[in-house]
Amino acid sequence: MRIFGRPRTAYAHCDLPCGVYDPAQARIEAESCYKIIEKYHGSKEDIFRGRALHIKEERAEMVKHHLDVLWHDYFKPEHLEKHPELHDLFWNAAKQASKVKASVEQADAAKLLDMIDKIDEIWRATGGPEKTRVLKAAKSA
Amino acid sequence: MRIFGRPRTAYAHCDLPCGVYDPAQARIEAESCYKIIEKYHGSKEDIFRGRALHIKEERAEMVKHHLDVLWHDYFKPEHLEKHPELHDLFWNAAKQASKVKASVEQADAAKLLDMIDKIDEIWRATGGPEKTRVLKAAKSA
Amino acid sequence: MRIFGRPRTAYAHCDLPCGVYDPAQARIEAESCYKIIEKYHGSKEDIFRGRALHIKEERAEMVKHHLDVLWHDYFKPEHLEKHPELHDLFWNAAKQASKVKASVEQADAAKLLDMIDKIDEIWRATGGPEKTRVLKAAKSA
Amino acid sequence: MRIFGRPRTAYAHCDLPCGVYDPAQARIEAESCYKIIEKYHGSKEDIFRGRALHIKEERAEMVKHHLDVLWHDYFKPEHLEKHPELHDLFWNAAKQASKVKASVEQADAAKLLDMIDKIDEIWRATGGPEKTRVLKAAKSA
Amino acid sequence: MRIFGRPRTAYAHCDLPCGVYDPAQARIEAESCYKIIEKYHGSKEDIFRGRALHIKEERAEMVKHHLDVLWHDYFKPEHLEKHPELHDLFWNAAKQASKVKASVEQADAAKLLDMIDKIDEIWRATGGPEKTRVLKAAKSA
Amino acid sequence: MRIFGRPRTAYAHCDLPCGVYDPAQARIEAESCYKIIEKYHGSKEDIFRGRALHIKEERAEMVKHHLDVLWHDYFKPEHLEKHPELHDLFWNAAKQASKVKASVEQADAAKLLDMIDKIDEIWRATGGPEKTRVLKAAKSA
Question: Which residues of A touch B48 (CB under 8 A)?
Answer without folding.
Answer: 16
